[in-house]
């Protein structure tokens, strides 16, 4: 981690997370503000390294550095006078772009409550995998047919989960989570809570990728490493995420899973100073978009396969200008985006972008009602869950996975604990679809390693998963499922369309 925290107390705006109802904000659009009129800005320099006098440059413009990722030339700055700071910094020939330091949210949609029976008379189910509740993993692994294929090589494959942390003592995860090399990027948690999960989202994602116990993930036995960027309430700064991407790549991760997202501009930011009414230009491209591009490129160049959720806003990703209109209509922070607005990291080059499907229990596959989609934007589909074909049929149509054993109701509703005991819960979203693909990617990397002694490149991994996906929707590529629904057995046996 290459970070600079020059304040002893960093305040950041977080969204309210209602675990019992799974009511998560989907995408953040407000810039992060701290005490008084102080605002946080993201500054990207033209060079992918920082000037030697960067502190003096920022101070002279009226700002203070709060965080830096020096390998890609990005800093976060706090200032009490954003208008004058912008004008001063944009006159510096080394500065490429400045924009609001936007918060990123955990990527889960809202579901209407369904009245479900919360008391169960039978004893808890001890073998979840054989109970039939894991319809998603059954689909992706062909009822477990891929689970034991090249399993011995999976411990040598590392999946970095950039999320809210793990329950490192969870009985279905503890044998293959890497506590020693996991990291936290949330200021104030270093050496205190570290990369433990106080939210449940990260543990749920990890379980889908590689759980090996009462429940099964897509790739049991794969090494899981946590890169914590979210606190208990579900808010994170993008610069923490880009820092985590860089760190995971430097640490030798083979796959990065990012079940998170936000909207970002490729165009022009304008800021209206509330005191003077002056509209100030913030750069020819969004600072945060450039930062993501640099971080993802860094990871891919180091051989990391990067997987992201597509997002849960029901948006057509092929129309970024319309997404810009949608975003501006929901802003009230003085910033205006002119140009094309993209969902990130989903639409960053080099990322495998995953839409969410519903299905299971004898129902047909369908694009989940909340999932983003778009011709050219979606690479693969994967189970993300919903509430059944009529949206009213209960939690079992969501994705069941691990949640922290030390939390009450880490997933939707109390019924999961009644059925399975502590440590399991239902969630739904493209957040749950992305780890299905990350699990298949990890299993395939293990196969190639076992057969050749080398690991495949990110391009080779993506090509294999797309060529062996199960076609859905229109014949061939389509805007909803991309190249099809990911399938582990087909990928490992090279069963093509």
TrEMBL record:
<feature type="active site" description="Charge relay system">
    <location>
        <position position="163"/>
    </location>
</feature>
<dbReference type="InterPro" id="IPR000209">
    <property type="entry name" value="Peptidase_S8/S53_dom"/>
</dbReference>
<feature type="active site" description="Charge relay system">
    <location>
        <position position="201"/>
    </location>
</feature>
<dbReference type="InterPro" id="IPR050131">
    <property type="entry name" value="Peptidase_S8_subtilisin-like"/>
</dbReference>
<dbReference type="GO" id="GO:0005576">
    <property type="term" value="C:extracellular region"/>
</dbReference>
<dbReference type="InterPro" id="IPR022398">
    <property type="entry name" value="Peptidase_S8_His-AS"/>
</dbReference>
<dbReference type="InterPro" id="IPR015500">
    <property type="entry name" value="Peptidase_S8_subtilisin-rel"/>
</dbReference>
<dbReference type="InterPro" id="IPR023827">
    <property type="entry name" value="Peptidase_S8_Asp-AS"/>
</dbReference>
<keyword id="KW-0964">Secreted</keyword>
<feature type="domain" description="Peptidase S8/S53">
    <location>
        <begin position="155"/>
        <end position="484"/>
    </location>
</feature>
<keyword id="KW-0106">Calcium</keyword>
<protein>
    <recommendedName>
        <fullName>Peptidase S8/S53 domain-containing protein</fullName>
    </recommendedName>
</protein>
<dbReference type="InterPro" id="IPR036852">
    <property type="entry name" value="Peptidase_S8/S53_dom_sf"/>
</dbReference>
<dbReference type="GO" id="GO:0006508">
    <property type="term" value="P:proteolysis"/>
</dbReference>
<keyword id="KW-0732">Signal</keyword>
<dbReference type="InterPro" id="IPR023828">
    <property type="entry name" value="Peptidase_S8_Ser-AS"/>
</dbReference>
<keyword id="KW-0378">Hydrolase</keyword>
<dbReference type="Pfam" id="PF00082">
    <property type="entry name" value="Peptidase_S8"/>
</dbReference>
<comment type="similarity">
    <text>Belongs to the peptidase S8 family.</text>
</comment>
<keyword id="KW-0720">Serine protease</keyword>
<keyword id="KW-0645">Protease</keyword>
<feature type="signal peptide">
    <location>
        <begin position="1"/>
        <end position="28"/>
    </location>
</feature>
<dbReference type="GO" id="GO:0004252">
    <property type="term" value="F:serine-type endopeptidase activity"/>
</dbReference>
<feature type="active site" description="Charge relay system">
    <location>
        <position position="431"/>
    </location>
</feature>
């Amino acid at each position: 981690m290459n970070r600079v925290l020059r304040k002893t107390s960093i305040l950041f705006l977080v969204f309210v997370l209602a675990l019992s109802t799974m009511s998560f904000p989907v995408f953040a659009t407000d810039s992060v503000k701290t005490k008084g009129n102080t605002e946080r800005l993201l500054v990207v320099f033209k060079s992918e390294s920082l000037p030697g006098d960067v502190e003096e440059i920022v101070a002279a413009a009226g700002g203070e550095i709060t965080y830096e990722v020096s390998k890609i030339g990005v800093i976060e700055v706090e200032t009490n006078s954003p208008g004058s700071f912008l004008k001063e910094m944009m006159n510096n020939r080394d500065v490429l772009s400045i924009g609001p330091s936007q918060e990123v949210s955990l990527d889960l949609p809202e579901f209407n409550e369904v009245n479900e029976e919360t008391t169960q008379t039978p004893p808890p189910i001890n073998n979840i995998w054989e109970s039939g509740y894991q319809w998603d993993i059954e689909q992706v692994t062909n009822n477990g047919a891929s689970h034991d294929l090249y399993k011995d090589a999976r411990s040598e494959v590392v999946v970095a989960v950039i999320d809210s942390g793990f329950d490192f003592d969870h009985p279905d995860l503890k044998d293959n989570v890497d506590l020693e090399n996991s990291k936290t990027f949330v200021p104030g948690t270093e050496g205190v809570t570290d990369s433990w999960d106080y939210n449940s989202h990260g543990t749920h994602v990890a379980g889908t990728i590689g759980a090996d116990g009462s429940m099964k993930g897509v790739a049991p036995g794969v090494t899981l490493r946590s890169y914590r960027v979210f606190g208990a309430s579900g808010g994170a700064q993008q610069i923490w995420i880009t820092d985590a991407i860089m760190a995971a790549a430097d640490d030798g991760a083979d796959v990065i899973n990012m079940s998170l997202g936000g909207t970002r501009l490729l165009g022009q930011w304008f800021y209206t100073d509330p005191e003077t009414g002056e509209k100030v230009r913030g750069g020819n491209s969004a600072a945060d978009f450039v930062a993501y591009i640099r971080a993802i490129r860094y990871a891919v160049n180091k051989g990391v396969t990067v997987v992201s959720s597509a997002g849960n806003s029901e948006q057509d990703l092929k129309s970024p200008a319309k997404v810009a209109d949608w975003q501006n209509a929901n802003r009230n922070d003085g910033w205006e985006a002119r140009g094309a607005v993209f969902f990130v990291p989903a639409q960053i080059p080099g990322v495998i972008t995953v839409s969410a499907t519903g299905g299971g229990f004898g129902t047909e596959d369908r694009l989940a009602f909340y999932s983003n989609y778009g011709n050219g934007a979606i690479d693969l589909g994967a189970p993300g869950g919903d509430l059944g074909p009529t949206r009213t049929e209960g939690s079992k149509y969501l994705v069941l996975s691990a949640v922290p054993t030390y939390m009450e109701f880490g997933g939707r509703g109390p019924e999961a604990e009644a059925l399975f005991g502590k440590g399991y819960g239902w969630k739904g979203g493209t957040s749950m679809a992305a780890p299905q693909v990350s699990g298949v990617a990890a299993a395939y990397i293990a196969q190639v390693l076992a057969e050749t002694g080398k690991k495949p490149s990110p391009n080779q991994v993506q090509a294999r998963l797309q060529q062996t996906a199960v076609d859905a929707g229109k014949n061939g590529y389509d805007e909803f499922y991309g190249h099809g629904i990911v399938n582990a057995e087909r990928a490992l046996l090279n069963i093509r369309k």
